[in-house]
Amino acid sequence: MTTTSASTFLKPFALRYSAGSSPRVVRRHTLPASEFRNLSLSDALSVFEIEREAFISVSGECPLHMDEVRHFLELCPELSLGWFEEGRLVAFVIGSGWDKDKLSQDAMTIHVPGGSTVHIHVLAVHHKCRQQGKGSIILWRYLQYLRCLPTVKRAVLMCEDFLVAFYQKAGFKDIGPSGIAVGPLTFTEMEYALGGGAYLRRNSGC
Ligand SMILES: CC(=O)SCCNC(=O)CCNC(=O)[C@H](O)C(C)(C)COP(=O)(O)OP(=O)(O)OC[C@H]1O[C@@H](n2cnc3c(N)ncnc32)[C@H](O)[C@@H]1OP(=O)(O)O
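Structure tokens predicted for Serotonin N-acetyltransferase:
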């Protein structure tokens, strides 16, 4: 098995202007208006606050509890992505490595280093920033980023039925009901093929 080298970590990249802002606006501080970067342990609390509002307040459950957020950000920060505006987390994705066709209960807690599949545990957008295209944008950026990781061939996730259309729009395919249930919640498993990596990597500035 291989481990991902530090050189594959995402270098933070700032967008020059936040959506709708004018290039002529002079900012009085040094935080980038908008930045995408891998998450680190120090982001765990911000991640969990978004999760608490997005999931726990709705169903009492969430994809990753605080200790699991910390676990994955420690084990595989290179499979996470955060979107920060003025230094504040507005959206994130957390993934881990996996190596089987379908997700099983093990996939909820383990990271398979160098696995050919990335299991996307959670995508969430801060509640004040939803329905503005941010979920679609960070997911698209994350998938582009995964194309640059040499061992990764596909991404998988499980979601509730009402989000199947959202993921289909992003290019995911429905691969049937998930074998995993959380209390009364059932899920559909979705897959995104990242194939053709060698050619794409040569031509995408990875
Ligand atoms: C693997 C997983 O993590 S599955 C769980 C996903 N996360 C959550 O449910 C947490 C709470 N929700 C969120 O954080 C966000 O609403 C997300 C991530 C689901 C979507 O992000 P947003 O920034 O709000 O979505 P965005 O603005 O990009 O919308 C894209 C499309 O998805 C649709 N959509 C967004 N949220 C939902 C929803 N909850 N139910 C149904 N459709 C939705 C929008 O209507 C839009 O469709 P349109 O283009 O036809 O108008």
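The first strand starts at residue 13 and ends at 15.
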